[in-house]
Design goal:
Strand order of the largest sheet: 2-1-5-6
Structural class: mainly beta
Number of domains: 1
Number of strands: 10
Strand content: over 45%
Length: about 100
C-alpha cells in the first residue's frame, strides 16, 4: 500500500514505515503530523484524486529537524572583476510514516 502526498510544494511517494525528508514543518521531534493532501492512493486498487482523494490522510511522526548540506552559489561577470559567493543550507523535517488512512 502506498500513497502520493503533497507538502511544501513537492510530492512524495510514501508507504508505511518510510522515513522521508520534507520541507520544514516547524514542529518539535516526537510530535504527530497529518498530511491531508493525498493525491493518489493504492491499496490493491489505484484511486486518483481530483485533485485530492476525499477522506484520505497520512499520519506521521517527526523524527528530527535539521539543515541539508551547504550549496554554494557563485556568480561572476567577466571582464569587470565582479565575483559573488554565497552559501545556502535548506531546512528540513525528517518524518516517519506511521499509517495511511484510506
Amino acid at each position: 500500500m502506498y500513497a502520493i502526498i503533497a507538502t511544501g510544494g513537492k510530492q512524495y511517494k510514501v508507504a508505511e514505515g518510510d522515513i522521508i525528508k520534507v520541507e520544514k514543518l516547524g514542529v518539535e521531534a516526537g510530535a504527530t503530523v497529518s498530511f491531508d493532501q493525498v493525491l493518489v492512493l493504492n491499496n490493491g486498487q489505484v484511486v486518483v484524486g481530483n485533485p485530492t482523494v476525499a477522506g484520505a490522510s497520512v499520519s506521521a511522526t517527526v523524527v528530527e529537524e535539521g539543515k541539508n548540506k551547504k550549496v554554494i552559489v557563485y556568480r561572476y561577470k567577466r571582464k569587470s572583476g565582479y565575483h559573488k559567493k554565497n552559501g545556502h543550507r535548506q531546512s528540513y523535517t525528517k518524518v516517519k510514516i506511521d499509517k495511511i488512512n484510506a
